[in-house]
Model the fold of this input.
Amino acid sequence: MQRRKDVLHGAGGESGDAFRCVGCRMAVSVVAPGTAHRNHCPHCLSSRHVDGRIPGDRASTCGARMAAVSLSARADGEWLLVHECAACGALKANRIAGDDNALALMRIAVRPLADPRPVRRALLVL
Ligand SMILES: [Zn+2]
Ligand SMILES: [Zn+2]
Done:
């Protein structure tokens, strides 16, 4: 049986204003309400390790999947989503977008912290 290659077809893909989610394969537009450039999937909240020290600098060559591990709130009340890289363990704090999956966010917020270490490390990053 011949499998049709869909690399060149899907809407979005790796083009400039959209990316393919490494978690659920959804085509995600980088334009999102409440944030300058979206770097995580609004559906499953997965991100990708592409940035170095500065969000959006695309300085990292890691490229591995980053899973949302925690939620954090800044003093000004803004909520941040903390991602941990599955390959190198790097932590990133990202602004939540206006259309992020509320249920997925809640799941992370109420998740019992079996290991609080990532959160403490994340607070040092902020
Ligand atoms: Zn996803
Ligand atoms: Zn990494």
Summary: The mean pLDDT is 81.
